[in-house]
Amino acid sequence: MITFDDVVKVYPGGGTAVDHVSLELATGKTTVFVGPSGCGKTTSLRMINRMISPTSGRVLIDGKDVAGQDEALLRRGIGYVIQHAGLFPHRTVLDNVATVPVLLGKTRREAREAAMKLLERVGLAAEFAQRYPAQLSGGQQQRVGVARALAADPPIMLMDEPFSAVDPVVREGLHREFLRLQQELGKTIVMVTHDIDEAIKLGDEVVIFRQGGVVAQVGTPQELLADPADDFVAEFVGRDRGLRSLSFDTAAGLPVRPLPAELVVDDAGRPLGWKSADGVRPTGGTFTSADTLRLVADLAILSPVGIAVRVDADGVADGIAPHHDLADYLAARRS
Amino acid sequence: MNLSYLFDAAHWDFSTSGSIPQLLLSHIWYVFLALVIGTAIALPIGLYIGHTGRGSFIAINAGNAGRSLPTLGLLMLMVTLLGLGLLPVLIALTVLVIPPILTSAYAGLRSLDQRVVDAARGVGMRPWQVLTRVELPMALPVLMSGFRSAALQVVATATVAAAVGLGGLGRLLIDGLAVNDYSRVLAGAIVVAVLAVLLDLILALAQRWIISPGLRASR
Question: Among residues of chain A, what percentage have pLDDT more than 90?
Fold first, then answer.
């Protein structure tokens, strides 16, 4: 567990970057610091591995104050990923990844063997190992950056805007990869971003900072969307938070109606479309009970008849959900 | 052009004192000493200033002041103070070598991508490791260009050693002028020029060898 105990950071020449922040970040979870620029989120992150020292207050890892620990040794035990990856341009991809194990006293050969496995783990082919960072795309560089941070298998990872320097399509892929990796590894991750959608997507817990280094609200993504503490948080979280909060629930509990005669299915029972005066109109997609309620809402809106079609694992239609049933279900759930 | 002195086989006999090979050897020796001493002084200072950012005015002013000092004048001053010998020559040449190396070491480190330096600290390198494993290798292209310009200057300027009675290729110039033997002067000028070109070539090859391909690589 990482603990912020009444932490303050004041820069000489005025300007409070972090203002009496107290937090507890759970082990094995992803905590995302999010807020507008100048809110102290990066300063807070960098106080965990002593890249910045607090003016007052303490930062503790598993109860031990980081201030009393050897800087270099502390940092070797904490993965560090930054924006633009910050790879060493004069070293090959493989040697970049092997950096921390070598610092920890591993032989170059051992470190390189471990690095090779990690490259695979972050989804980079072996052929990249001998290339230099300048020969990689931004997304590939960021993968190498993550591999470098993971190389010594640290229990904690700090990630400072790790995905903000890549284009949206690549970012989407990196997000998926991140969630898959985190499911496998279960690290204690602290991530900084200015993108609330990224925070909601990747965080188990989200800490929203406001200008002046004050924590505005701490909570799970669901809590922040459902119950913002004040106007600042509500505005920061965004207008369509009602719709987005549907992403956290599956359609498992949503009641469905039996298939109506208007739904055309093929011989196997897979939906083809809706009967209409000018032939069969496509359904626009289907959902399973494992999909999110957000998808169901989306399908109900897109459907030519305002009805989402549910299918089972084999793609066979087994029920329908008209948009008013979804609305009733959501209303009943809220009360 | 009269190349008779240069192509006279007698002047290339190593056993004769004052032959071209002997003068060349002593010339290279002065150049070598000045570069080694100058680098030993300028490189640590330049790296320190570049790494810490402290005292950058020294780097900038030393560069400018050093470049504007007349080497011959400085040499005469040193001879007046210290008497004849190798020492005053080395001091004068070393003063010439220091500014380009100091300035390039400083500029090389200052121009680095600070995010990479931040990452080096962040993964747990100690300050010394940040300097030797990240900053120095990344700054090598700039540093080497400073070293090459220092080497070229000192090859040309080491001819002043002859003005205070020492050897080196300057002998050919000064003695040739003294007896109006322009063929000898020309021989001296040509050998100095060839030496400069060869040295630069060798350093260029060394540069390819010691600078990481990653710093040249492009997408």
Answer: 55
Q: Which residues of A touch B115 (CB under 8 A)?
A: 82-84, 86
Do A75 and B137 lie within an 8 Å CB cutoff?
no
Q: What mean pLDDT is reported for chain B?
A: 89
Cβ contact (<8 Å) for A72 and B138?
A: no
- How many independent structural domains does chain A possess? 2
Residues A279 and A195 in one domain: no
User: Mean pLDDT throughout B47-70?
Assistant: 81
Residues constituting chain B: 219
Indicate whether B67 pLDDT > 50. Answer: yes
Q: Are residues A158 and A27 in the same domain?
A: yes
Same domain, A243 and A257: no
**Looking up tokens 């020309």, which residue turns up?**
B186
- The boundaries of the domain holding residue B54 are 20-212
Count of structural domains, chain B = 1
**Which residue in chain A has the smallest CA separation from B117?**
A86
Nearest CA in chain B to A104: B124
What CATH number is given to the structural domain containing B95?
Answer: 1.10.3720.10
Residue A144 shares a structural domain with residue A243: yes
B97 found inside a domain? yes
**Interface membership of A130 toward B (CB under 8 Å):** no
Is the pLDDT at B166 greater than 70, yes or no? Answer: yes
- A206 shares its domain with A326: no
**What tokens appear for B93 in the block?**
């040449």
Contact check, Cβ <8 Å, B217/A92: no
Which domain does A75 fall in, by range?
2-248
CATH code, A309 = 3.10.580.10
Pick the residue from chain B with its C-alpha nearest to A131: B214
What is the C-alpha separation between A263 and A276, in angstroms, rounded? 10
Q: How far out from the chain centre does Cα B66 lie?
A: 13
Q: Calculate ∠ Cα A219-A224-A230, nearest 5°.
A: 105
- Sheet with A307-311, strands from edge to edge, namely A286-287, A307-311, A317-322
The verdict on a CB contact (< 8 Å) between A88 and B125 is no
Q: Residues A148, A122: contact at Cβ < 8 Å?
A: no
Cβ-based contacts of B122 with chain A (< 8 Å): 49, 51, 75, 80, 82, 86, 158
Residues of A in contact with B136 (CB under 8 A): none
